[in-house]
Structures are given as structure tokens and as C-alpha cells.
Design goal:
Elements: E1 8-12, E2 15-22, E3 29-33, H1 44-50, E4 55-59, H2 77-91, E5 97-101, H3 103-115, E6 121-125, H4 136-143, H5 145-148, H6 153-165, H7 174-181, H8 186-198, H9 203-209, E7 219-224, H10 232-241, E8 246-250, H11 257-260, H12 262-276
Parallel strand pairs: 3-4, 3-5, 5-6, 6-7, 7-8
Antiparallel strand pairs: 1-2, 2-4
Helix pairs in contact: 1-12, 2-3, 4-8, 6-7
Pfam family, one: Abhydrolase_1
InterPro entries: AB_hydrolase_1, AB_hydrolase_fold, Carboxylesterase_BioH, Epox_hydrolase-like
Protein name: Alpha/beta hydrolase
Amino acid sequence: MTGWPLPETFRSGSGAVRWNRLGGADRPPLVLLHGTPFSSYVWRAVARSLARDHQVFVWDMPGYGMSEKYAGQDVSLAAQGRVFTELLDHWGLAEPLVVAHDFGGAVALRAHLLHGAGYRALALVDPVALAPWGSPFFRLVGDHAEVFEELPPALHRALVREYVASASSPGLRPMVLDRLVEPWLGESGQPAFYRQIAQADQRHTDEIQERYSAIGVPTLVCWGEDDTWIPVAKGRELAAAVPGARWEPIAHAGHLVQEDAPSELTAALLAFLRHVA
């Protein structure tokens, strides 16, 4: 994507992962994880701001954004948790700061609680973490992914645009919406969109939900107060489940907080990171 390059490639067990690093190598490492159906592009403004004081790693999960997409690909939460653990080892990061949104929150939690990935601190932004999750639309598509894959391209494009747009409370700029939809178009993108929904199984968070009380690293839970995808009450519940977690609601922001309130989110993250430094 013009203006947001991911020039590096890591060959994971679930396909090629595209990634990049911003900021000086002598700065504290910080990793950003995106959610679904997004990509690291949603972090661009926040990443550039954080890179003033941190070495920021951004990546597109297998099956998302500019990373590899192919038939039969395992893009489940279980697979992404393993890939993230592999990436941390590849980057040589023992205890980075980790900031994760939506589906990426579950990926970061699984890597930490099941695969032993160590973090200096963890910030969760409107994460998929507590049951039940998945909208009626999400469940409908998941149950009939093979049918939706056969939609004419124009109808598929319209569906994805409406779905992605609904993640924002004030609304996305047309150019931004185009960028977020683009990876899900074409011969590889259209089936990949339905593949990732079909593999989104709640059991992958059920496996770890009872372990949140064992999280021992400093944790921040941020939530868009106008989130219609995951109610803000889930954020309060999650913050209460993690010992000592800080709770930070973000006003006038929907689920896609990075787009709706990037300055407010960046300020909340910087305040938290200064606290744990």
C-alpha cells in the first residue's frame, strides 16, 4: 500500500508474513497487532507517533493485508498465536511492549498465556477476549462461508465496504475505507475474507478466559465508548478480570479506535507506557 510499506518477509507456518520496523533500534521495542477484518494499516498514525520513542514493529497476520493468502490456509486464532510467538523469536524480542486490537488482542493473549511469550507490558484495545463474541452477521457468514465466497465481485465489494465502515462511529474517510477493503478483493482476497470469518471460533478464547487472572504484566484496557461491535461493558469486565489492569474509555470512538480517535488513543498509550517504563 502506497505510504504504508511492509518490505520485510517472514516465512511462518501459516504463510508469508509482511512486516516493517519504525524508529531507532536503540529504543524500547513495541509490537502492534491488528484485528479483523483489518491490517497493520489501521495503526499507521499511532505507529508513527510511538516510533519517536520506541522501536515499533508492525505486521500483517497471515491471510490479512499484504501477507500471503491461499486456499486451505490456517488463519485461526490458534495459528495466529503460534505465528506471533515465532515472529517474536525471529525479531529477537524477549519482553517487548505489546499493543493489540480486536482479534489481535486474543492473539497476544494466547501467545502469552499458552506459548510463553513474555511482555514488558500489554495494552488491549477493544479486544476479542470474553465470550460471547461475534455479531449475527459474523455468525451467518461463518456458517455459510462457501456460499458467500460465490458472490459476484461487485456485491462482495459492497458487503465488505458496509461491514468495515460499521466499525467506525463517526465514519471512515473514503480513501481509508478503500485501503481497508482493497486486500479483500480479487481472486485471493474474496475467499480469504470469508475464510478468516469461518475459522473464527470462540473456543480459542474460551481456552484462555479463565487464565486472565494470572496475567502478571502491567495491562491497559482501552475501549471506544461507541463500539457497536463489542459493547463497552465487555471492556470493563475484562479490566476487572486482569489484576491491576488500568481502564481507559475513549469518548466518541467506535470499535476502530485507531481511526476514530488516534490522538486520544496515542495519548492513553503514551501515558501507560511512561508509567511502566
